[in-house]
Write a structure and sequence with these properties.
Strand order of the largest sheet of chain A: 4-3-2-1-5-6-7
Radius of gyration of chain B: 21 Å
Shape of chain B: globular
Largest sheet of chain A: 7 strands, mixed
Number of helices of chain A: 9
Bound molecules: iron/sulfur cluster
Number of strands of chain B: 19
Radius of gyration of chain A: 19 Å
Strand order of the largest sheet of chain B: 5-4-3-6-7
Shape of chain A: globular
Largest sheet of chain B: 5 strands, parallel
Structural class of chain A: alpha/beta
Number of strands of chain A: 7
Strand content of chain A: 15-25%
Helix content of chain B: 25-40%
Largest interface: A-B, 66 and 82 residues
Helix content of chain A: 25-40%
Structural class of chain B: alpha/beta
Oligomer: heterodimer
Number of helices of chain B: 16
Strand content of chain B: 15-25%
Distance between the termini of chain A: 43 Å
Chain lengths: 205, 468
């Protein structure tokens, strides 16, 4: 995960799918804030979607993440505005630690999307009709392998495929391994320090 | 002649270190604020990479999210919370970062203390691992929330890799009616433009209504830009901004202040500035507003009836049906009169002195209704002290409100202040997502602090104009 220092080149992700339907699934649903009181990310996977998966007495409510057919899934399929709400990176961290390595959806909240890229998890969009088809296909046959191909800009499943979109900047970062921004930013160390020294509110008015 | 530039363009260009391959900008971050929840992992990643903080003098730390508000006594009862606090202490000490701890007189919610200390200034780029960083845009800064990996990036490089947002100017014309506050303005903006309407945009708030807002009100406004999907929201700096900053601890000192003002003024959007989009809203149409659902765009005026699902745009219907089920509210009925069990006044949206003053004006007119748990949580130690010196705490206590220590409190469930079970909370905070206030089934109605006080006294959602 993000502790990794040298970034891999992410050109495609293959794996079984899991469908979580619904628009505007926010970060509080993905990882309730009460599970964020730790100074580490490890163990977050246990609480992913906690309140939509279990009643307050801990009884499973039949969420896809508890459906045995989806066990081991790596590609999450969602609808609109997934990950809206807080900036907490705990949300993609929890998903990633649960095993999700790519997300296909109709749209994503901006900060969530950025956080996914920072973890090397491509979050790609497809049209509403294509997402609907993909969801149906995965639900019908959860054992099949999906391929999210950033190079070809497609998602393919058994018997179908669709175009995917991702902003060029983020796609490029994933594909050339520069998604771990820290290294890239630090290459300009001297320019950074020069910039700091030139800003009126840093050097003094 | 070249077309005029807006504030975002000016600040962006000034802070650009270089363009990155792939179209993003390497942007210098002038002010980095950190707190206990999203910084420990950032420091950990930095350590793992064997790096140190590049410009420690431009990062400032406090603790807010997990701090209990009944007592600030150490060690905190919650061992994990104590561990987070200790992590901030250790990390800031080790890296030479200025920290405003509990008891310093300067601790508080990160978006309350930045402005209060004069750290937040016009023309800056500001980042913090919290989505309500947009608050600081009230000063004409470009401020945005970042994730933990980006906290690490700023610590390591004082920079972020970002795509330049488009800018939408939202002009609010006319004047606000009696009993209508900045909170109502932003809830109205989100209601009109939607919770996704601002994705990819920075919001510039302008027009006569905005120009007349105090700095604290502008902070409330910019704070909830993110609820409208806009990661950045700002107001152009003007005399109100400069007057607010004068004399604050980290503001430029007397001799330099006028130079600073001249520079700050030059950063405001030009008169002929171009925008990617423009929206005009009429201030006179804004009523005291209340949310009824599970996203902040599901809002109505307090005198309106809950919308019928079939009146809503197609895209919003499924969410509305789901929200009605969760909230246990009935379409077609008025929102006023809905019984509440909890009233929360506080948060980085509405936990400042003027918010407490407005709420106290209402609190003075009666007593908290039986069966209602009502909390007033100042946004910072300084707000608390200022409120106490005006006697506001006595007003609240006499009316039956609890008077607490500074912190995020019931805005989110990371400290002992939580909803229990199905409780319905009238809240001056910013998010009404399911589970936000600590109980997975707990329910939130967002509104202005004066409206929360009114609801507390009546035991039901009430039109604050009847009590003022
Ligand atoms: S008050 Fe709420 S929104 Fe503001 S910083 Fe604290 S938790 Fe975040």
């Amino acid at each position: 995960m993000s502790e990794r220092v040298t970034a891999e080149r992410v050109t495609s992700r293959r794996g079984r799918g899991v469908v979580v339907r619904g628009n505007d699934i926010d970060t509080d649903q993905i990882i309730p804030a009460r599970y964020m009181t730790s100074i580490r990310f490890a163990g977050l996977e246990e609480f992913v979607f906690r309140d939509v998966r279990f009643t307050s007495d801990g009884v499973p409510k039949g969420h896809p993440f508890d459906d045995r057919r989806y066990r081991g899934a790596e590609v999450l399929v969602v609808n609109q505005n997934f990950g809206c709400g807080s900036s907490r990176e705990h949300a993609p961290q929890a998903l990633g630690r649960w095993g999700i390595r790519a997300i296909v959806g109709e749209s994503f909240a901006e900060i969530f999307f950025g956080n996914c890229v920072a973890l090397g998890i491509p979050a790609v969009t497809a049209s509403r009709a294509d997402v609907a088809k993909l969801m149906d296909a995965v639900e019908l046959d959860p054992a099949q392998e999906l391929a999210v191909d950033l190079a070809a800009r497609t998602v393919t499943w058994r018997g179908g495929s669709a175009a995917i979109r991702m902003p060029d900047g983020a796609r490029g970062q994933l594909m050339d391994g520069s998604w771990d921004a820290m290294r890239t930013l630090l290459e300009a160390r001297d320019q950074i320090l020069a910039k700091a020294a030139a800003l009126p509110y840093v050097k003094g008015f | 002649m070249a077309p005029g530039r807006n504030l975002l363009d000016k600040v962006w260009d000034l802070h650009t270190v270089r363009e990155l391959p792939g179209g993003q900008t390497q942007l210098f971050i002038g002010l980095h604020l950190i707190h206990e929840v999203t910084s420990p992992q950032g420091f950990q990643m930095l350590d793992d990479a064997g790096l140190s903080v590049l410009v420690p003098s431009r990062t400032f730390a406090t603790v807010d999210h997990i701090v209990p508000t009944d007592t600030h006594a150490r060690p905190l009862r919650d061992a994990q919370a104590e561990e987070m606090l200790e992590a901030v202490e250790a990390n800031t000490k080790r890296h030479g970062i200025q920290f405003f701890p509990i008891g310093s007189g300067s601790q508080g919610i990160v978006h309350v203390i930045g402005p209060e200390l004069g750290l937040t200034q016009p023309g800056q780029t500001i980042a913090c691992g919290d989505s309500h960083t947009s608050t600081h845009g009230a000063f004409g800064a470009i401020a945005f929330g970042i994730g933990t990996s980006q906290v690490r990036d700023v610590l390591a490089s004082q920079c972020l890799a970002l795509a330049r947002p488009k800018v939408r100017r939202i002009s609010v014309s006319g004047a606000l009616g009696f009993g209508v506050y900045a909170k109502d303005v932003i809830l109205h903006v989100i209601r009109r433009l939607g919770v996704k309407g601002g994705v990819g945009y920075a919001y510039e708030y302008a027009g006569p209504v905005i120009e007349r807002l105090s700095m604290e009100e502008r902070m409330t406004l910019c704070n909830m830009s993110i609820e409208g999907g806009a990661r950045v929201g700002y107001v152009n700096p003007d005399d109100a901004t400069f007057d607010y900053l004068r004399g604050r601890r980290f503001a430029p000192e007397a001799g330099a202040f006028e130079h600073a003002v001249a520079w700050w003024r030059s950063m405001a959007s030009d008169k002929d500035a171009r925008f990617d989009d423009e929206v005009e809203l009429a201030g006179g149409e804004i009523a005291p507003t209340v949310t009824w659902g599970t996203n902040p765009g599901q809002a109505i005026g307090v005198t309106e009836k809950l919308p019928r699902v079939d009146e809503l745009p197609d895209d919003d219907r499924a969410a509305a049906e789901d929200a009605y089920k969760f909230m246990d509210l009935v379409p077609g009925r008025p929102i006023a009169g809905t019984p509440i069990q909890v009233a929360f006044i506080g948060s980085c949206t509405n936990g400042r002195l003027s918010d407490l003053r407005e709420a106290a004006r209402v609190a003075k007119t009666g007593k908290v209704a039986p069966g209602v748990r009502a909390l007033v949580v100042p946004g910072s130690e300084a707000v608390r002290a200022a409120a106490e010196s005006e006697g506001l705490h006595e007003v609240f206590k006499a009316a039956g409100f609890q008077w607490r220590e500074a912190g995020c409190s019931m805005c989110l469930a990371m400290n002992p202040d939580k909803l229990i079970g199905r409780e319905l909370c009238a809240s001056s905070s910013n998010r009404n997502f399911k589970g936000r206030q600590g109980s997975p089934t707990g329910r939130t109605l967002l509104m202005s602090p004066a409206m929360v006080a009114a609801a507390a006294l009546r035991g039901r959602v009430a039109d604050v104009r009847e009590l003022l």
